[in-house]
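User: I'll paste a sequence; please echo it back and then give the predicted structure.

Assistant: Echoing your sequence first, then the prediction.
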Amino acid sequence: MLDIRYIRENPDRVQQAARDKGYDVSISELLELDEERRELQQQVDALRERRNVIAASMKGGRPEQASIDEGKQIKIELSEREGYLGNADASFMKLLHQIPNITFDDVPIGDEEDSVEVKRVGEQNMGAKDHVDFATARGWLDFERGAKVAGAKFYYLKGDLALLENAITQYALEFVIKNNFTFITVPHLVNQRTLTGTGFAPRSSDQSDEYAIDGEDLSLIATAEIPLTGMHADEIIDEKDLPLMYAALSPCYRREAGAAGKHTRGLFRVHQFNKLEMYAFTTAENSKLMHDTILSIEEALWQSLGIPYHVINIASGDLGAPAAKKFDIEYWSPVDEAYRELTSCSNCTDFQTRNLNIRVRRSDGRVEMLHSLNGTAVSLARSLVAVIEHYQNDDGTLRVPDVLQPYLGGRTIL
């Protein structure tokens, strides 16, 4: 969430930033609630102070009836005011959590089509067999049986395609570890505080992407970013220990609400997939450098796999609530003859860390909010799509990218 002090000082900018991201929130309403709760807090503090004075005056002797009567009246008034304050605080926090992060000045304003290409790598080749048709013909991919056991957009990977997914996973994991990320396993269920604190706020009530467990304060994770953020909730990290750089491999579960009209064919948009996520905590002055570092690792990984791509600076209306800026890597699809999203890389500044109270203790003793960043190393389902589209042969076989051959027993053809 944003610092309320910043919102008080910059209400117009915060309102415009929310509007640019497509969030329907009222900053004036928030500030009215803020003023109300501050006034109530002053009243509660004054009543508590008077209560303590009266209590002190009653010690050591027989209290006067007037003091007893005043004490009773203060107790009634205090209980009433504390109730009002609790309600005001709850309303205030609910609205505060709906306000998205401020975007950086170099973020394009607009919707998805307004995102700006910043780099292009590789050739735009044309003509390839669709990955679903290719993999199904080889007996590698089964959506029909996936639907039988779990519903639409679930699937089985079999044989060489499952082995290829494992090869990409192992290669990518070693790649990010060599770039100083610490491998971590994470819980696949998180509580509501962690989910909300990470900032996964839908633009509208019908766009929630998480699978919640009925009767439990738990939801399945949509990305390892969520438990990685929550891992250091309510902690103060010494500056000398920064940056903290983690890599987590996990399944991701997504309802994909609000995905209508987007590219949804086959493995490209499913309800469950595996993903290797990079995550970092840094100081405020180093977060932009870390953002560039994570992006450069993503690029180097996909260059090594020989997949053509471009990098885009995502427009404000396509940013999630936590991100101040996001780069996407989109691979060139010879099937669609268009670029399709492969990875993302976000700088969330202190938005998530403020929610979850994750701070840094500077060398001079000052305590401040940390910044958090995340980036996809590989989203395995989409990675398989990209490899199939770019490495297929006319005879129905699949060439193995050079860097993956050691993870498939030296095989060059599948």
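The longest strand covers residues 272-282. The domain at 4-96 is CATH 1.10.287.40 (Helix Hairpins).
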